[in-house]
TrEMBL record:
Name recorded for this polypeptide: Thymidylate kinase
Assigned protein family: Belongs to the thymidylate kinase family.
PROSITE patterns per the UniProt record, alphabetical: THYMIDYLATE_KINASE
Keywords carried by this UniProt record: ATP-binding, Kinase, Nucleotide biosynthesis, Nucleotide-binding, Transferase
HAMAP family noted in UniProt: Thymidylate_kinase (MF_00165)
Any single GO CC term annotated in Swiss-Prot or TrEMBL for this entry: nucleus
Superkingdom as given in the UniProt entry: Eukaryota
EC number, as in UniProt: 2.7.4.9
Amino acid sequence: MSNRGAFIAIEGLDRSGKTTQVATLQARLESEGIPVKLFKFPDRTTAIGIMIDSYLRSQSELDDRAIHLLFSANRWELAGAIEQLLAEGTTVVCDRYAFSGVAFSTAKGLSFEWCRSPEVSLPAPDVTLFLDISPEKARERGGYGDERYEKEEMQRKVRDVFRQISTEFDEARWVTLDAGRRREDVAADVWNCVQPFTSGLASPLQRLWNK
Ligand code: DGP
């Protein structure tokens, strides 16, 4: 039986260069002839995603728990498509995933355990790359955007929760990269982490919250 595709999640703080790194990784995989599909969470194109988009732009208000569940539902509504692609041998790259859900909502003051609950049983990434950047370095790169959460104090808290999450996974499944460096150097590290997965995996897909 042929290998399934690898499931790669890229997480990162705002201003970490995550979008550029995801695009670079996708291009590299394609140039190597590896079938790849990119998902970006939140996916603002679905009915649920439109509600999330409106909330992030501060065009609507929602209870903290209600928006948390919408973010999670947005992942669940696409989980089946992700599983299907992986089973067909396609590598799936996610720009943000369940860990952002836990990090941002916990940073707002909700309990870590409560935030994690709706993410349990989602397909687990085979590896998560966390693009870490200090708030000082992020500031040097120019201001944050206008969306909700794009504030330095919030980013500090989010970073702390990401650090907490990282301690729950072994080094093979969670890799923290210093994203404050030159983008070429970060891209080289991203590739080094992803390259071993490019021939796919024979092992079954795991479920969150699997260490
Ligand atoms: P992005 O499109 O990558 O800039 O992400 C949009 C914003 O939403 C960003 O500030 C991070 C935040 N975010 C992403 N996923 C989640 C989530 O699941 N829950 C919460 N509360 N925030 C999230």
